[in-house]
Fold this protein.
Amino acid sequence: MSDLDFALEPTLESVVLHDSLKWVFVGGKGGVGKTTTSCSVAIQLAMAHPAEEFLLISTDPAHNLSDAFNQKFGKDAKKVDGLANLSCMEIDPESGMADMALQAQSQFNNDPNDPLGGMFKDMTGSIPGIDEALSFMEVLKHIKTQTAAPGAIADVAAITYKTIIFDTAPTGHTLRFLQLPSTLEKLLGKVQTLSNKFAPMLSMLGGGAAQQQQTQEMLAKLTEIQSQVTEANNQFQNPELTTFVPVCIAEFLSLYETERLIQELISYNMDVTSIVVNQLLFADSTEDECKRCVARWAMQKKYLSQMDELYEDYHLVKMPLLGKEVRGLANLKKFSKYLLTPYDPVVNGGLVFDLEDAK
Amino acid sequence: MSASPLTSADKARVLRERRAAKMALGTDRLQKILNDGGSLKVAKPVIEAKSVAEAPVAVATGSAHDFHDDPETSDISGHTKPSDTELMNQLLGSVGSAPASAASDDAFLGLFGNNPEMAKFFSADADGTGAGGLFSSFMNPQTDETPIDPSVSEEERAYQQQLTAFHKYNLTRYLCVFDIAKTVLLVLMFGWYFFTTDAPFASSHRHVRFLTDAPKAPQVDTLHTFHRWFLMFELAVQSTLYIALSSKFDSDSYQSDSYLMKGLNFAKGLGFLKPTLVQKLFSVVKYQVILKSFMADVAVLVVLLGLWSGFSGL
């Protein structure tokens, strides 16, 4: 066996035990178990590095983190009960836009009854991509925290998280989110170029020193955002800092979409090293009396063998379909263990019916 | 003697290169999945072929590649990893120089909620050297209207520009010759009419003529008659001009230079005018060459009448 024939373990050890990872995206088609997997990854990361802080953000407009942990989360990071170094956040576009409108109002027009404020909120709340934009703004905030000098951040509650895990929306939304850094960088570059061209004309048109100062502040802010966006772009394309974990099931459509997803991620220079195949039945005919499960397992095995061929250079993690919902910290801990240790249906088969009832 | 074992960083790098090399097969892999799944669909490429080919790894080329085979080995000893700047340029296209890739244009489309007018507004390079668009025509109103195709080389572009300039020169020369000929005919017609008519400025009403020195005959040729001659002349001349322009020249070449057309396009792009109204205005504006020619003849006529009245002492 030559040095180039690597045996890749079917686990997520390369993700959980990786020292330098800052961003972990978990995504895939709807209903494959993204939230369960992202929660499991976050839990394992938190348990592997108890001295570090981790943050799990849901960018899916149909948030599920609260249901997964049986605990209410909101737009502000909140610690998970029972796991002190893991926090969760569900980004809410409506309140995010309300905050922005409030900020803009206080800066430019202090009239709380300004009808334009309400119109702004109504309009922007329905813009396609607004969820992704707000999630990305959260990313920029954390980049700012990470790159700022100690003590430079005014917000004393700002925490520097070792790794931020994203429970992403179904594939299309996520790809749009991942395009944002490149798109924004180009857009901001053009805005800068235009502002440089028009600055002399604008100053000629007058508006006074206060107006010019406001313009200067706005341009300075744009420059700052541009550098943060560039930094985000660089980090997302650095395999030492960012990885994407696609989640799929052993079915035709899921396999096809996963392949398309990975091809598109690679075109964005985003690193993909591991794939999670979820909801596997492991129903061997000799041991299982359920004919449906046996038939379905036979179908899954066909696609699994295809995946073994297609993804021989990836860590292909095979996770079982359990008898109950994987909800609550205790159940998630039991389930997430098999992200690091390959699931053996013979040895670990007891897990299928070992979960606590969801409350 | 075996080579020294690879470090984990080397292993990771080799694995990344393998993955990228296999993913470069792109549509083939997708088609295999579809065939194995018994689907009737034909796989569409996820990304443009050129952006896959630009990936900084050795790509399996040439004949059909079976998934069961190992990827073709390539000598990576001399291969250098592209710099961050090169990777960024591959992903984005440089601002202000290389044209945007289809992927980033689509991203613009997505960013603006699939509004193609807004995406076009921003996807044009502000310096006008990228893909053409509304914004580039606003920034550089003097430059050629023809949008620049990013797949066209510099030489081709220069050739196209020279060809366009040549067409414009031809059109200008044609219009000049036509205008000169038309003006000469108009002057001759004017001269023939006024030198052969007894009282060219007489009233067409007989009872008014009785009050003056004008001929008292029941019917005389007057200015009213000349106007009819003039209108018939214009009808013939302008129709000839329109037919000649339509047959000899592409309508874009004698319409696209118009600031009026550019202004209407820009107003439409910004949403100041409805597209249906702009289309109606276009259908009027496209006859502007004819209108200009007619107005020029009217101006010549006014000058001639003024000169005649001055010299004839009316």
Summary: The CA atoms of residues 199 and 214 of chain B lie 6 Å apart.
